[in-house]
Structures are given as C-alpha cells and as structure tokens.
Design brief:
Length: about 475
C-alpha cells in the first residue's frame, strides 16, 4: 500500500512539473496599470488631478427652484406732451412666477513658472414663467398689455468664462467695481450687481499683508444704459475701473472707481425713419448733423466694507456700500430704471410711471437738428447695508436696507421737450429666514418691500389736472427658494 501511494504522489508531481514547464513557454499578458484619481490639496478642498496631467480640477454648481408672489400695481405712461395714461392695470399683470435653475462650475488650475494658470467656467440654464420670465408674450415689466397666459422660457447664460495668470484676468468675470453681495438675498436690491459677469481685461497686483489693487477695462455695453429717443449711444468701448482693497481677519475694505465716455451721436439710420430726414431737410434746407459726437465724461466712485461679527454668532457679518455716479448711473445699481427694483433678473415689483434715465440728456435746444443743443449729466447716489445673522447653525437670516436717488440736470421747458423727469428715489427693505438641514442645502423664505417717489421738472397742464398720478408707488414681494449646492 505504501508503494502504491508513493507511485501516485510521484506521478502527480511529474504532471505538475510538465504543466508548469509548458506554461512558462506561453505568452504572458500583464494587467494594465490603474490610474486612480488623486486628491489635489494645493488649491483647497474639492480639487483632484485630471489623470495623466498636473492640472487640478474642481466641479461644482447648484440646482435651485424659486417661487414668487408679487401683487400687481397700476403702470402708467406719459406721452411726449406730458399726458398721463394707465398702460396696465393689476388684472393685466402676472402676480406669480417660477424659476428653475441649474448651474455648473468648472475650475481648472495648473502650476507654471510665473504662478498658477486658472481657467474658470460657470454656465447657467434657467426655465422661468410668470413674473420670473424676462421675455415672451407676458414679460411682466413691459409697457404693453400682456397675455394672462403664463409664458415659459429657457435661457442659457455664461456667468463666467475666464483665464487668470500672472495677475491678469482675461474674459468674462465679476465686476471690479461692484462688491456688495446683493445676490445673497432673493432680490437684486439697491446695489450694482452683474450675475452674468462683465467682459474685461484686468490686472491685479498683490502687495502682501492683505493689500491688493486692480486696474481693468470693462465692456461698457455690459454695464447697460438707456438711450435718448433720437440719439444712438455707441455700443463699443470700455469703462476704466480701478479698486484698492485690504482683507483682514475683521473683514475687508474696498475703495472702487470708474470713468467712461457718454456720447450723444446723431444717427438717423439707427432710427430707421426716413420721414425724419425729410422733415429736417424741408425745414432747414440741409441736414444739420452734430459735429462728430456730443460727449461728456462720466465717473463713479464708491466704497464697500465688511465686518465679521463672531461675537454675535459664528458666520455673522455686516456689509455697507455707498456709491456716487455722475453720468454712469448704473454704478448705483438701478439698471437705469427706477421701477426695475425687484428680483435678480429685474422683474416687476413697482408700478407707477415708467422711466429710464440715460447717463446724459439734452438740457436745451434740439439735438436732432443741432439747434442750440446742450447736454448735461444725470447724477445719482445710493447706500445699502446687509446683515447676516445665524440664529443657530441651521437657521440664519439676511436683512437688507437701501436707498437710491437719481437727479437729472435742470432742463429748459421748450416745445421740443415739454416734459422732463425730475428727482427719483426708492427705498428697499428685505428680510429672510433660511433653514439648512445639511451643509449647502437651503430652504429660504424672503419678504421684500419697496417704496418709490418720482418728480417731474416741467409738468404739463394735463398732467397737473390729472393730479400727478403714478409718481408714487409701493409694493411687496414674497419669495420661496430651495437651493442645493455641490
């Protein structure tokens, strides 16, 4: 038995050795190396290396749903002769709206010999209806009768698309003038803000100790601005913007300024109305265009402060901003239209008389025929404050208050210009309560109030007879927002 057992074991060992020898002659195939995603700690949390490169990438964004309710108000218009009339009654205005938004952020950074090169892209897509819809047949801020059927529109926008390297910023980025965090609230409020950023070329110098300064050229068309009826404001050029700031543990302080050129340029082709050419030729014999453009430099200056308030609660802070503008009235945050104080997309909140103030206006004569034509700058100023307070780590509130005022220059009462705007002002207040079950998940409710006052320089007899209607208005808006960031 022992002999048989030994023979079997020997045979098995021989088979194994032969099989091993044959296997050694077969072609071998090694498994491909696995490229695991590596964490990149150099630029903060959330970055990872793109496999096979030395570029670090962070992906972020949010999904948001917002529901609005704003009571309708009488909307008035005034003819060139100063005759007031109701353009829309509350029953012809949407009072509710829904805004569903998705945003994606891509932040890529690569080290170079002259510092990190950063590429940042922020894309937003929104589907909105009712008073949240800025276009379509029932854009609720238009001066025309609108359909009661709630239109729905989708908008895809580029908020940012920039390259930063060696102190330079190229592309579309946040403004170098506006720093007040107005979009913390659910309304635009009385402060300048640019959700879609501004096209620009900028350079930032960092001096150490929290001190820095920026010099930039920002696209004037992104700043906006109303146009006079018979003149064409050139749509090219830049504003020169500069700021100096200091960032410390207590918060920050920023002084910011801007200069730019306002123009009145006669351009009858822009109007597309050959009848104007015929009437001027008939009255003057020949056309009398302006000699080049009537220009006037505009400027704006302001300051923004933030103070951290850890003595009240962790995360508490208060912001202040003050701005003065001469010609560049967009710097005080009204978008040139006093009635547009409302949500970030400037949907209707206030009724009353509709007005839009350009940076410069004709103060005397007739610029269309170049008869004694003079121009003057529209000035304005605004202040605002924002307090953020954490009641508990999960509950916080934002309280904002602001005041804005626009002051057109004195205008002579002539047959050509029988009706001109005077001073306008608006007070805006808002408060919110926000619940965060987990980090970056917010459920918030906000109530906003606005009060507007208008004045007229040269009211017509018809306007006075009507009792100066539509010069004052106030209203409120209620908003619910659910927001999840990642």
């Amino acid at each position: 038995m022992t002999i048989v057992k030994g023979l079997l074991l020997g045979a098995a060992a021989g088979v194994v050795s032969i099989a091993a020898a044959q296997a050694a002659d077969l072609p071998s195939r090694k498994s491909a190396p696995v490229n695991f995603v590596k964490i990149c700690d150099a630029y903060g949390a959330g970055f990872f290396y793109i496999p096979g490169t030395d570029t670090c990438l962070k992906v972020g964004g949010y999904a948001r749903a917002q529901y609005d309710f704003t009571p309708g108000r009488n909307i008035w218009t005034v003819s060139a002769a100063g005759v007031p009339a109701i353009a829309q009654v509350p029953a012809a205005l949407d009072t509710t709206g829904v805004d569903v938004t998705g945003r994606v952020d891509l932040d890529a950074r690569t080290p170079t010999a002259l510092g990190t090169v950063r590429t940042f892209i922020r894309l937003r897509a929104t589907n909105a209806s009712g008073i949240r819809n800025t276009g379509g047949p029932n854009g609720s801020f238009n001066n025309v009768a609108i359909s009661l059927a709630p239109a729905s529109a989708t908008i895809i926008a580029i908020e940012s698309a920039l390259i930063q390297w060696a102190g330079f910023t190229f592309g579309q980025a946040t403004s170098n003038y506006a720093f007040f965090p107005g979009y913390v609230t659910y309304i635009a409020g009385p402060v300048p803000g640019f959700r879609n950023g501004l096209k620009q070329l900028a350079y930032t110098a960092t001096f150490g100790g929290g001190f820095s300064a920026t010099l930039a050229l920002e696209d004037r068309t992104d700043w906006g601005g109303a146009q006079a009826t018979y003149n064409h404001t050139p749509a090219n050029g830049f504003h020169l913007v500069a700021n100096a700031r200091v960032d410390q543990s207590w918060g920050y302080a920023i002084v910011h300024g801007m200069i730019g050129n306002n123009s009145l340029r006669q351009d009858f082709g822009f109007m597309g109305n050959p009848g104007i050419l015929q009437s001027i030729a008939a009255s003057n014999g020949t056309l009398s265009p302006l000699s080049g453009s009537a220009t006037k430099m505009g400027f704006a200056i302001g300051a923004t402060l933030k103070f951290n308030l850890p003595m009240l609660a962790a995360g508490d802070a208060i912001h202040f901003t003050a701005n003065y503008a001469d010609g560049l009235v967009g710097a005080i945050g009204l978008g040139n239209t006093i009635n547009s104080i409302a949500s970030p997309a400037q949907h209707r909140l206030l009724g009353g008389i509709q007005r839009a103030d350009p940076g410069i206006i004709v103060t005397n004569g007739n610029c269309a025929t170049n008869v004694g034509c003079t121009i003057g700058s529209v000035t304005g100023w605004g202040i605002a404050t924002l307090l953020t307070h954490y009641w508990t780590p999960q509950f916080r509130s934002n309280f904002m208050a602001g005041y804005n005022q626009i002051n057109p220059p004195t205008v002579a009462a002539t047959a050509f210009q029988p009706f001109q705007w005077g001073k306008a002002s608006v007070v805006t207040l808002s408060g919110s309560i926000i619940y965060s079950p987990v980090r970056d998940f917010d459920i918030g409710l906000e109530l906003a109030y606005a009060n507007m006052t208008n004045k007229v320089q040269n009211p017509s007899a018809a306007f006075l007879l009507a009792g100066s209607p539509g010069l004052k208005d106030s209203n409120f808006s209620l908003k619910l927002r659910i927001d999840r960031q990642f």
